[in-house]
Design brief:
The complex is a heterodimer of chains A (304) and B (488). With 304 residues, chain A is mainly α. Chain A has two domains: 42 residues; 243 residues, MetI-like (MetI-like fold, Orthogonal Bundle), CATH 1.10.3720. In chain A, 76% of the residues lie in helices and 1% in strands. A two-stranded antiparallel sheet of chain A has the order 1-2. In chain A, a hairpin with a 7-residue loop joins strand 1 and strand 2. The longest helix of chain A has 42 residues. Chain A is flat and about 65 Å long. Chain B has a five-stranded mixed β-sheet with strand order 1-3-2-4-16. A four-stranded mixed β-sheet of chain B has the order 9-12-8-13. Chain B has a two-stranded antiparallel ribbon with strand order 5-6. Chain B has two domains: 196 residues, 3-Layer(aba) Sandwich (D-Maltodextrin-Binding Protein, domain 2), CATH 3.40.190; 225 residues, D-Maltodextrin-Binding Protein, domain 2. By secondary structure, chain B is an alpha/beta fold. Chain B contains 20 helices and 17 strands. The radius of gyration of chain B is 26 Å and the shape is globular. The chains are: A mainly alpha (304), B alpha/beta (488). Chains A and B meet through helix 1 of A and helix 1 and helix 18 of B.
């Protein structure tokens, strides 16, 4: 009897101890994650400029959102850039992973070199790319003019299409190393015996890649793809530094659009920005959900 | 026992985490050298006065808050001079830099405002006046003062006939040009073109002479204020619209009226007469390139004459000059655009409003001349709202010898401000003017300019209607009776 009571007490003390251990983290989580999240949902139903008190205005912000052409243009741009990034980055990083996994000289050197841009801050890469592609005194224009390919500097960041190409280029350069490392880890998990027996059966390298590597990447492929897509939806710093969304919001993306309304130095509209960010959250979540629905069926069956 | 210790430690940890946030309240402020000691002294003196122990000879201590970032600025220098000039009042200036508005907001919530506070850098200065935090100055403004000051001085912060502040910062736009590049292009540097057509020819000649080394015109498209500096200024001088495409003769926004000016800049851009990369250059880069001799002409604010002469490295080496902004051939020149900013309010809670006004009045009379008296090298051509002060400063040999002072002081009698600038209080839905105009200049061939401008006017006008309905603007202010851009 006594033992049981003591045991229960001990258990309770243990629970309390665990709870207290978690407390600092929980406090920080509620302070910096949960509270701002719910507060921005609240703000999305108000008219608020960050200065005067928020005034409740029902669903006005959401109604305005659906009429806001610039916002949907930013959404379109986000999808466009994400898709372009995905189509380029996934095959390229997989290819690089296969290459640096094969027995070549200086394997580690290549791995490091390719991964290196990922360690650099995107904002700094953005500034470097900005200088490279700036129309006056830019390195790229300088080279092209030296080669005699162009007579007048090209305004890379002044035109919608070329600006988007530069954004994709930057994004690919900085992300590809990370995706490659993920693929590399996944490839190295595949048992070597499979390749050995495939070689014995006379399968070529391409056949091995198609019939062994690709199918066995399975769930890892799904996760890496998802990361690539979500990375596209979070696109912000590179666009901010390179074009600032310009010319005329033509290269704006979701995160930048929200930022511009939230931190506009002359007349911020934080209520509206909150509504837009709630909408952006739903769009991103929906894309993630749809992707998982489609792919999990496919990968799920193979896994069984 | 061990468990208890663990528990205790966990608790301490949790507390220390939460405690950090409360204790880390930082306040960055700089004060004049003697500021802090003075303030402490003031506290004791005040206490003494209240106890009735001190005689009537005690100085009246006033506190003034300013937005400036450095403790040594025109306001502190002028107030130091004021303190030394008489022995009745002593003003302590406290400068708060970037945190100014936060500090002021906190102080106004807790009703602890200083006797005098500057309204520079505040998001919405009139909100402080409407909230009753500032005292009206009407009783202190004498008829003599009204004659002495430019009439614009009493209209900027006038709410229902009550004047809450007098602006002391005046800004206007001028064309800055490089005399050496004019000569290299075979142009006369003493005759800056008076028409936009003439400026186009000059930009073309300079670009051709530069052959990729330097260019005719600089337009910092990335800076939001570019359009106010370039397009609006020409529109106002041409009698087309006010700032931000607002037309006071119609009482609404009409961006279509600015179309010829946008087309003019689009042409300069398309023909490569602008420094390349205009779409991603901001004003600081343009200034640096102007001083480096890469740009022939650009538009900038009056304050840059002081900036180049006294602050920016190389500004004294480059052979630059200043001229009034040109307008299209055959148009009559309307009044020039005078921007008024800043100013000082007396807190409604101040116990010595009359003395505070005396200090402000001294400030307005001396804010340009006091710094020059302290350090002769800091002399700058200025535009005070008091004509006699301008005449006095601008007639000195030191000012006359300064670069750009002739162009800067030419035609200042033509300057006039707009009482209401509606764009600043609007909550706009959709892209604003600063987002749309770059597209019209850079991609002029690909966009339908008429359509974009009419959509822009629509957006601004619908926001305008809402602002009027909410009482932020008054209909009669938007369309003043008998308004005329030439006589306003």
């Amino acid at each position: 009897m006594n033992k049981a009571v003591k045991g229960r007490r001990n258990k309770r003390a243990l629970h309390l101890q665990m709870f207290l251990m978690l407390l600092p983290m929980l406090i920080l989580f509620f302070l910096f994650c949960a509270y701002p999240l719910f507060y921005s949902i609240y703000l999305s139903f108000t008219k608020y400029n960050g200065f005067t008190d928020p005034v409740f205005n029902g669903v006005d912000n959401y109604l305005r959102l659906f009429r806001d052409e610039s916002w949907w243009n930013a959404v379109k741009n986000t999808f466009q850039l994400t898709l372009m990034a995905y189509v380029i980055q996934i095959p390229l990083s997989l290819l690089l992973a296969v290459l640096v996994n094969s027995k070549i000289k200086g394997q580690n050197f290549f791995r490091t070199i390719i991964f290196l841009p990922n360690v650099t801050s995107t904002a700094i890469i953005g500034i470097i790319f900005f200088f490279m592609f700036s129309s006056y005194n830019g390195i790229v224009n300088g080279i092209l003019m030296q080669l005699g390919l162009i007579g007048r500097p090209i305004e890379w960041l002044g035109h919608t299409f070329s600006a988007k190409v530069v954004i994709i280029l930057l994004n690919t350069w900085s992300q590809i190393g990370y995706l490659m490392i993920m693929f590399l880890a996944a490839i190295q998990k595949i048992p070597k015996e499979l390749y050995e027996s495939a070689t014995l059966d006379g399968a070529s390298k391409w056949q091995q890649f198609r019939s062994v590597t690709l199918p066995l990447l399975g769930e890892m492929f799904q996760v890496i793809s998802m990361m690539c897509i979500l990375n596209g939806f979070q696109l912000f710093d590179s666009v901010k530094v390179l074009t600032g969304g310009g010319p005329g919001n033509q290269t704006s993306v979701m995160a930048l659009y929200i930022y511009n309304y939230f931190f506009n130095s002359t007349g911020a509209q934080q209520g509206y920005a909150s509504a837009v960010s709630v909408c952006a959250t739903f769009i991103t979540a929906a894309v993630g959900a749809v992707y998982f629905l489609i792919t999990s069926k496919k990968f799920g069956q193979k896994g069984e | 026992m061990k468990k208890r210790i663990a528990l205790l430690m966990a608790l301490t940890m949790a507390f220390s985490v939460t405690a950090c946030s409360g204790g880390a309240q930082t306040e960055t402020k700089t004060e004049t050298e003697t500021g802090k000691a003075e303030a402490e002294k003031a506290g004791t003196e005040k206490a003494e006065t209240e106890n009735g122990e001190a005689g009537s000879e005690e100085k009246i201590e006033l506190t003034m808050w300013a937005r400036a970032s450095s403790a040594e600025n025109n306001q502190t220098i002028t107030m130091d001079e004021f303190n030394a000039s008489q022995d009745k009042i002593h003003v302590t200036v406290e400068c708060y830099g970037d945190n100014y508005e936060e500090v002021l907001k906190l102080a106004s919530q807790s009703k602890e405002l200083p006797d005098i506070f500057e309204i520079s850098g505040l998001g919405n200065p009139t909100s402080y006046m409407e909230a009753g935090l500032a005292a009206p100055l009407n009783d202190y403004i004498t008829d003599d003062m009204r004659e002495e000051f430019n009439p614009s001085a009493f209209t900027k912060y006038n709410i229902d006939g009550q004047i809450y502040a007098i602006p002391h910062q005046t800004r206007y736009i001028r064309a800055y040009y490089n005399r050496d590049l004019f000569e290299k292009a075979g142009l006369d540097p003493d005759a800056f073109p008076e028409t936009l057509e003439g400026m186009y020819d000059a930009a073309k000649a300079i670009t051709e002479a530069g052959n990729g080394e330097f260019y005719g015109f600089g337009l910092p498209i990335k800076s939001g204020s570019t359009w106010e500096r370039n397009v609006d200024d020409i529109a106002i001088l041409s009698g087309l619209t006010g700032p931000f495409g607002f037309d006071y003769t119609q009482g609404k926004f009409d961006f279509a009226k600015q179309k010829p000016i946008i087309e003019y800049f689009a042409k300069l851009y398309e023909e490569g007469l602008m420094m390349p990369g205009a779409e991603s250059l901001d004003i600081e880069v343009i200034r640096a390139n102007f001083i480096a001799g890469k740009i022939g002409i650009y538009f900038d604010g009056s304050w840059m004459v002081n900036g180049y002469n006294n602050e920016i490295e190389g500004g004294d080496v480059t052979n630059w000059d200043v001229a009034p902004v040109p307008i299209f051939e055959g148009t009559e020149r309307a009044k020039d655009y005078l921007m008024l900013e800043s100013g000082h309010c007396i807190a409604a809670t101040s116990e010595h409003p009359a003395e505070a006004f005396e200090a402000i009045n001294y400030l307005y009379h001396n804010i340009y001349s006091a710094p020059a008296r302290k350090d002769a090298s800091m002399v700058a051509p200025s535009l005070s709202l008091i004509d006699s002060v301008n005449a006095e400063i601008n007639s000195t040999e030191a000012v006359k010898a300064l670069k750009g002072s002739v162009g800067l002081t030419t035609g200042t009698e033509n300057l006039s401000s707009f009482v209401v600038t509606p764009h600043s209080v609007l909550t706009l839905e959709g892209d604003d003017r600063n987002t749309v105009y770059p597209l019209l200049v850079i991609n002029s061939g690909e966009v339908n300019m008429d359509e974009e401008l009419s959509k822009l006017s629509e957006r601004y006008n619908s926001a305008l209607e809402k602002a009027v309905a909410e009482g932020l603007l008054k209909q009669e202010d938007l369309k003043p009776e008998g308004f005329d851009y030439y006589t306003r």
